[in-house]
Amino acid sequence: MPILDASTATEDFEFSYLFPADQLSDDLHNGSGDATSYSWVTSQGNRVTLSGSFTYPSGVVTGPVTMVTVNLSDNASDDIVISSLVGMTAANFLSVHATIWLNLFSGQDIFIAAPTVHSDYAGDRNSAGTVGGDFFYGNFNGGSFHWYGDLSVLVGSATNSYSGAGDVFIIEGALGDVSTMVGDGSAIQSGDQLTGGDDTFQISTTGSQVNAIGDVDDVFGFAQGGNDTFVLLGTGAAVAVGDFGTVGYVLNNTYGLAYGGDDVIVEQGADTSNFMLGDAQFFALGTLHGGSDTINGGGGNDTIFGETSDVLSTVNSASSFVGGNDLLIGGTGNDTIYGDVRDFLNLAALGSVTFGSDTIYGGADNDTIYGDYRSGGTFLAADAGAVDYIFGQGGIDTIYGNGGADWIYGGTEGDFLYGGYGSDLIFGEAGIDQLWGGEDGDFMWGGDDSDTLHGENGADWLYGEAGMDYLHGESGDDVLIAGSEGDFAWGGDGTDTIFGEDGDDTLRGEGEGDVIFGQQGIDTIYGGTGGDFLFGGTEVDTIFGEEDNDQIHGDEGADFLYGGIGDDLIYGGTQADTIEGNEDNDTIFGDEGADNIDGGSGSDWLYGGAQGDTIYGGSEADVIFGEAGSDHIYGDAGDDLLWGEDYAATVDLAADTFHFADGWGNDTIYDFTPGMDVLDFTEVTGLTALGQFTLGTNVDGFAFLTFGSDSVTFYGVTEAQLLANSGDFVIN
User: Fold this and answer.
1) Which domains occur in the chain, in start order?
2) For the segment 673-714, what is each residue's pLDDT rounded down to a tens digit?
């Protein structure tokens, strides 16, 4: 019986199997156990020789081998269906110290590793065609393994096609070293095409790390990953990669093209730190399409990537990346989750970037989640990204939506949520959260506790909701809604709209032309720069117009209203308000209630309103209307025009009191009623008797009086009427 010499074989090197000859002969041939050479005929009519020695092909590490197989027909449907004398199938191998390589055109191979050994299995060889769906099983007790479901390395200038079937890997027991499972391939170079099978990985080990890779690792041509399933049940660490490891540089100006499968990765074991990657890890040149993956981290501190990790340097050609729509679930540990690509490095000519719409659940502990890319390097993906759905759930989470219009939910504890680019919807939910909108117009809800919201750039909507919240609109024309408790809101730059809602709020417009509503609660409102519209609300509010020409409404409640700098328009409201115009020329309406009004500096128009008001004109020439009620009117300095009632022909039976002090100026009273209204000069220094006045009649026939350089003219009143009602004068 001839001894096979693979160094001169016309077929590719198939596999080597390190196994004692006597044990193999017992298992496969029902022989005596001492034979050193056997021969079978396969079901396809091909002869297989079992021999005690073997000559290796060039480049293969040598060692003692007791069995080889050669598939002499490339269209064979099965790898190693060997027919012995009794028709026994030798597809199930129990290995002791095993290194096995099968061929690519094979069918369904079954590998069973021994408990305490290191085993290297590869399901198929380097050739074109369709590979089989292989089954790998190992129950280890300190051993380790490197298993490859289909091919290892494909290198070819011609265009070949490779299709992997669905492989099954089951790992149990305790591993003694780092082990690796690859569902379909390790590398493919330009000109070849690889389609990965739908692989299944079940890992329930303790001890060392298991690296599980669903499809091809390195791609230099065209590759399409299968829909792989990973189930991690044990306490050992695992690295699960759904599809490619690297999409490499192009060869001969041919672009690499890679499609990731729709993978499922689930960690159901104890709290183990796992690394899970749905699609590619490194990408340089060509086109990468990530699959729609489902990854569940389970317990332990996991690192999860929905798509690729790094897009490397381009040379002279454009690259493009298309992310899949992934479902990523962190589980109970402190996880780090990336929805799509992590880094772009030195992209000279990026063709296009399309991020997938990912759904991410952080889990119960403190997670860090990135919806799309992490950083741009020299490439700034300003508006890249698809719609991601990210749920922090339990723990103190840090979530980055990054590119795309994302939906971000913080969860049950104090989270850090960043929208990034795109118009995002961000929900803090429970816990003391911090929310940052990012570059575009975002919608943000603080949630149940005391949250801090930053709109950043863009026209944002910020809702504080429950708790004492801090809302910062920052850049853009923002809408801020404080919520149910005492909140603090800053509009920032731009024309902002701010609502205090319930609670005693502090609201600041800051930017240009803001509109602020205090609503319920005792609010404090600051207009800031620009002409603002400020409304108090239902309680006792304090409002500062600050700079520019503001419009202020006290509304309900006995409010404190301050115009500040600029020509302000101020309305008191329904209760007894305190109103100060401050600087410049203001117009003030006390409205309802017995108001206290001070025009301040500038020439002001002041209206008392429906009840008896106290009105101070200020330092310059003012126009004052007491209107209804018994008003106290102080013209102060300047040449003032004074009406005790409305300037219109209305009937006001209440007595008004006009107060004068040193240097009151040259005032005119237009509706003085002798015998009813009162002239109070008690604040004038040196005036002790009525005779100290100089009385007279002007050219219009109206009475006037003077004291020093100051005077009062009584429109429609004669000198005789004044003298007949001397009781109208109050003098020290």
Assistant:
1) 578-730 (2.150.10.10)
2) 999 999 999 999 999 999 999 999 999 999 999 999 999 999
